[in-house]
Design brief:
Protein name: Fe(3+) ABC transporter substrate-binding protein
CATH architecture of the largest domain: 3-Layer(aba) Sandwich
Number of strands: 10
Keywords: Iron, Metal-binding, Signal
Distance between the termini: 28 Å
Pfam family, one: SBP_bac_8
Helix content: 40-55%
Organism: Niveispirillum cyanobacteriorum
Order of helices and strands: HHHEHEHEHEHEEHHHEHHEEHHEHHH
Structural class: alpha/beta
GO molecular function, one term: metal ion binding
Bound molecules: fe (ii) ion
CATH class of the largest domain: Alpha Beta
Largest sheet: 10 strands, mixed
């Protein structure tokens, strides 16, 4: 795995000098030299928006951010192996299922922050402060506008109906997004009905699960199937793409928010927790609080097409154009708690 992407002290100071005058930059030197003004992040997010978030935080606070990127499970294993010697302050991850896994592995510590508790709705954070959702995404149905009418669609449950045989596209069950979706079905219906649902889904697959969400959307546009499941930001990214082929594919398909007449569409979060042995705990909390400011929430919304979790922050216009929708209000922790059982069910159902 990569070493921390260290920025030079000189670069930080030069930028501060430009912002606030050389005197202030020199005053901050002892703090930086003491190693107090930095935050070390282990991140499994894979979005360019994060670079903007880090730069905005560094500019505003003069606190240096060092990042190690990796896969969620690798980072959790690394935190476990490093134990008290870990330099990590913050774990940034996509999907509540993963954050819950980190909590369960004992690599996070609880945080009491009035700022975060006020800014982040209760269903998007862990009740004791082990992690906080900082942006949200819905898992929705994408349909081919030529072969499917919105009135043909209703719920996730309905996608298991034989009428969709050979028409459904969805990525593998090894993907945590699908594990969390199945975890939400488990919470709504219990194990027996969830297994019947997963079997129905697998029986309807247009092809063996492969690729990511964007590949499912492209396959619907290409006529390989009629309906797919995808996170919202991937579709928005395609709609706003500078690549004409990708944009044309996105324009062939429509987005449908499922379960609007009952519990609402499945919404998951991307978020962060403080590492158990964070050497820079206070600055790390400051960083999390920064991510819940209107400035950072706008970056999540504009650069990655995610839904801000903080009320009153507008979504990207491409996202806002879909209109309001009803969201499943299940606490995101439940996806984590149900993860192992969800995965077993999907396995047994043949959703590989
Ligand atoms: Fe993603």
């Amino acid at each position: 795995m990569k070493m921390f992407a260290r920025r030079t002290l000189l670069r930080t100071l030069t930028r501060q000098a430009a912002c606030v005058g050389l005197g202030a930059a020199l005053l901050s030197l002892p703090t930086l030299a003491a190693g107090a003004a930095e935050v070390n992040i282990y991140s499994s997010r894979h979005y360019d928006a994060d670079k903007l978030l880090y730069a905005a935080f560094e500019k505003e606070t003069g606190i240096q951010i060092n990042v190690i990127e990796g896969k969620d499970d690798e980072l959790i294993e690394r935190l476990k192996a490093e134990g008290r010697n870990s330099p990590a302050d913050v774990l940034l991850a996509v999907d509540a299922g993963r954050l819950w896994r980190a909590q369960d592995a004992g690599v996070l510590q609880p945080v009491k922050s009035a700022v975060l508790e006020k800014a982040v709705p209760a269903e998007y954070r862990e009740k004791d402060g082990y992690w906080f959702g900082l942006s949200a995404r819905a898992r929705v149905i994408i349909y081919n506008k030529d072969s499917v009418k919105p009135s043909d669609l209703s719920t996730y449950e309905d996608l298991a109906d034989p009428k969709w045989k050979g028409r459904l596209l969805v990525r593998s069950s090894t993907n945590v997004y699908n594990q969390s979706l199945t975890g939400s079905i488990l919470a709504a219906h219990g194990a027996e009905k969830t297994e019947a649902w997963a079997k129905g889904m697998a029986a309807n697959f247009a092809r063996k699960p492969q690729g990511g969400d964007i590949d499912q959307i492209k396959a619907v546009a290409a006529g390989e199937g009629d309906v797919a499941i995808s996170n919202t930001y991937y579709f928005a990214r395609m709609l706003n793409s500078s690549n004409p082929t990708e944009k044309a594919a996105a324009q062939k398909v429509g987005l449908f928010f499922p379960n609007q007449k009952d519990r609402g569409a499945h919404v998951n979060i991307s978020g962060a927790g403080i590492a158990k042995y964070a050497p820079n705990r206070d600055t790390a909390v400051k960083f999390l609080e920064f991510l819940a400011t209107p400035e950072a929430q706008k970056i999540f919304a504009e650069a990655n097409y995610e839904f801000p979790v903080v009320a009153g922050i507008p979504s990207h216009p491409v996202v806002a154009a879909w209109g309001d929708f009803k969201r499943d209000s299940l606490n995101a922790s439940v996806y984590g708690q149900n993860n192992a059982e969800a995965l077993k069910i999907m396995d047994r159902a043949g959703w590989k």
